[in-house]
Amino acid sequence: MDDDWKGTMALDGGALVTQCSHFLDLMIWIGGPIRSVFARMQNLAHPYIETEDTGFVILHFKNGAIGSLQYTMNVYERNLEGSMTVIGTDGTIRVGGEYLNTLDEWNVKGIRMPVLEEGAEANDYGTYKGSMSNHDKVIENVCEVLFDGAEIAANSLQGRDSIEVLQAAYISSIEHQEIYLPLRGAHYKFKIDEEPPLSGHRKADCDE
User: Fold this and answer.
1) Structure pTM?
2) Tens-digit pLDDT profile for residues 91-100
3) I need a surface site. Which of 106, 187, 194, 206 has the fewest CB within 10 A?
4) What share of residues in the chain are helix, strand, coil (percent, to 5)?
C-alpha cells in the first residue's frame, strides 16, 4: 500500500518527528544550544501504528534555562492549541491559538506589544488544521541563495542540531534516562528502526 510507511519506526518516526519538530526548532532557535534531554513517550490511542502519539520532553539549555515540550495527537475532533510561552527575567510572551497564530500575552519591560500582520491561511484538514503554509518562502530562499548569492535562512548545521535533540529524546524515553549532548558512542549510532515499537505492535501485524 502507498501508506505502508506511515506510523512506522523505520520510515515515519513518531509524533515528535512528524507533528512537533517545528516547535522544537523554535525552542532551540530561541533558547540556544541544548545541554541535555529527558523524555517520556507513549502510544495511548493509536495501537495500529508503531510510534508514540503522546510525549513530554524536558530540555536543559546550556545557558541555564529549562524548557518543556508537551505534545499529543489524541485531542478529540479538532485542534486544542499550538502554543509557546517564554518566561524571562524581564518579561513574558505567549504565542498561541490553534496553530501558533495569535499573540496571547505580551508583558515585556520597556517594549510595547507589537502589532502583527495577519498570517497566511492554515492548512485545512477538515476539523483539524495545520500550521500556516510557508513552504513558498523556503523555496524562494533556496532559489535566492543559489542564483543571487543571498544568505541562507537555515543551514544544514542548524538542522542537524534539531535532529540530534530529537534523537536524544527518543533514546531518553527508551532508556529511561537523561541524555547529554553531543551524542557519543552507542547513542551516536542509535537507530530507532532497530528498537521495539513504542506502541508495542508492528504496523504490519495490525494491518492483517
Assistant:
1) 0.88
2) 999 998 887 8
3) 194
4) 30, 25, 45
